[in-house]
Structures are given as C-alpha cells and as structure tokens.
Design goal:
- The chain folds into two domains: 145 residues, no CATH class; 43 residues, no CATH class.
- The longest helix is centred in the C-terminal third of the chain and has 12 residues.
- Helix 2 packs antiparallel against helix 3.
- Strand 8 and strand 9 form a beta hairpin.
- An eleven-stranded antiparallel β-sheet has the order 1-5-4-3-2-6-7-8-9-12-13. The protein has a two-stranded antiparallel ribbon with strand order 10-11.
- It is 15% helix and 41% strand.
- It starts with a strand and ends with a helix.
- By secondary structure, the protein is α+β, with helices and mostly antiparallel strands.
C-alpha cells in the first residue's frame, strides 16, 4: 500500500515559491482499497507530482494508485483513473457527482524554474503555478472524455435529445464546475 516518496530533481519544496499541495496540511481521510480494506489516515495531495501522501514515523510515503478504489479526502471524493489522453498512466480525479454520468475534475500545478534578471525585469524565483482545471464526463461503463469545448460536449451527448436541449437552454460554460455539475445532475435525473 505504500512506497517511498521521491524528491523532484534534487530540489526541495521549501526552496520553491508557492505550494504544490491542494491543502496546506494533512486532511483526515478514508482510503478505500480495491481489495475491500479501508484505512483512516491524514493525507495530503501533492498536485505537482499527482501523489497522495501520508506520514508514518516522521517519514512521508505515498499511496499506490493501482491499489485504491477511492478516497474520501475531507469532504471531497477522489478516484484514481487512467488518463483518457494517455491510458497507460493514471491520475487522481476529484468526483463531485457520481451516477450513470459522473463529473471528473483534474487539478494540476506546474513547476516554473528560475528566470534570471533581464534589462527591464527582475529575477523570478523557482515557483509552483496553478494550471486550469480539466473537466471530464464519464458515462457508466465507458472511458471518461475530456470536455474541451461545447462542441465536444454536444458530441458526447449527441444521442440524448433532452440533454442537447438542456445544453442550448442553459448556456453551459465548459470551464465552470457549477455549470457542469448542473448538467451531470440533469443527466442522472433523466
């Protein structure tokens, strides 16, 4: 269930501006394993490495994604799933709504290296930079599909006339969790 956490390229997070973590501290959570076991652990989600950490004997370890069914991370639900664009790799997805249709949200942070001073600009230190969230729609029994545009969303729902009518009437923004959550709830209540 555990493995030692690797450092990033010899740098330690304390030398980098910003935070790679979803929350600053460890959050009381429950991990549900594929084998049926569960464990209550304080966890911390490292968005940069896409790893969920826990502490044991003052050492940091991370959960192995392939062994996990889902995680109750505070009040959030997190599920490890294959990345639709690269099915060989898995990632953690926040899942605010599950049912016949589910909304998956991938949160990410990137590392931006030091930029030396230039003629009219000060130096910029190593830093973590938040990236826009990625949204996916998952129909039960099918792989998740990334929602990049309203056109993609219409293609996903092309055989569902009430859903297409809902899309037209509600003016959904594909980068807004509230709008997408409303759509998924509509789909699950059909």
């Amino acid at each position: 269930m555990i493995a030692a956490r690797n450092a990033i390229g010899g740098l330690t997070y304390k030398d980098i501006s910003g935070s790679p973590y979803y929350s600053p501290g460890f959050i009381n959570s429950i991990v549900y394993m594929k084998n049926g076991d569960s464990a209550a652990l304080p966890l911390r989600y490292d968005l940069y490495q896409d790893e969920i950490e826990f502490r044991r004997n003052e050492q940091i370890f991370w959960l192995i994604k392939n062994d996990i069914r889902n995680i109750r991370y505070g009040s959030d639900r997190i599920i490890p799933e294959p990345i639709p664009e690269d099915p060989v790799k898995s990632a953690y997805f926040f899942v605010p709504e599950m049912g016949h249709y589910s909304l998956y949200i991938r949160k990410k942070i990137d590392f931006s290296p030091y930029v030396p001073p230039q003629a009219y600009a000060d130096a910029v230190p190593d830093r973590f930079v938040g990236l826009p969230e990625e949204y996916y729609l998952k129909k039960e029994g099918e792989p998740a599909i990334r929602i990049k545009s309203k056109k993609v969303l219409s293609e996903i729902l092309s055989e569902n006339t009430p859903a297409l009518d809902y899309l037209k009437k509600s003016k959904i923004r594909v980068n807004d969790d509230g709008d997408l959550l409303g759509l998924v709830r509509f789909l699950n209540n059909q």
